[in-house]
Amino acid sequence: IGDGQAAIFKMESHNHPSYIEPYQGAATGVGGILRDVFTMGARPIALVNALRFGDPSHPKTRSLVAGVVAGIGGYGNCVGVPTVAGETQFDEGYNGNILVNAMAVGLADQDKIFYARGATPGNPIFYVGSKTGRDGIHGATMASAEFSEGDEEKRPTVQVGDPFTEKLLIEACLELMATDAIQAIQDMGAAGLTSSSVEMAASGGENGEGIGVVMDLDKVPQREEGMTAYEIMLS
């Protein structure tokens, strides 16, 4: 964009989680795209959203609107990134499931952009962020499922937002990126440790040929007791 800087942006949907648990679903949708931006070395500067809800007279619409709007605004306020634009429409076609599209924009120096690729053998992997819990497990599976009566049971699959920790994480990562300490970095997506570790390993090596990764799950910070390896890897 000039002056040696680049715009980093990401847009994605968080539809099903927001339908099941409007506040947390929308809030973690914002948190997820902020991660995508700052883990590339960009400081998040703006949030944008495009929302679709059912007919205003539908019994669930009012509570869905209130929860989603509060989730987006509340998370952005806590993490210190403003929502600068938004667009909302209502149609009965969305009575059964809403659309929550969120976008984050960040600013980075063109010569200081970070990627998941580039990790080489022998380097330690650092886990940073909130402790791992059981919320969010099978979130990606749920996002592809069809809804029916009794969807309340799917609420635990929606991740619980933690904007204050993410604010600390943004500042800590950007400060660390100002040094030469980081070879590669990847945010944890829908499959948690599984996705982030595999993505970094698959694109690692001197020429991107891929490398292995060894993880000691006993060292993963946990906020619940008795979690299985399966739960730790997929949260």
UniProtKB/TrEMBL annotation:
Record-level Gene Ontology MF annotations: phosphoribosylformylglycinamidine synthase activity
Coiled coil: none
UniProt keyword terms in alphabetical order: Cytoplasm
Keyword match Cytoplasm: yes
GO biological process: 'de novo' IMP biosynthetic process
InterPro entries noted in UniProt: PRibForGlyAmidine_synth_PurL, PurM-like_C_dom, PurM-like_C_sf, PurM-like_N, PurM-like_N_sf
UniProt protein name: Phosphoribosylformylglycinamidine synthase II
Organism: Hyphomonas atlantica
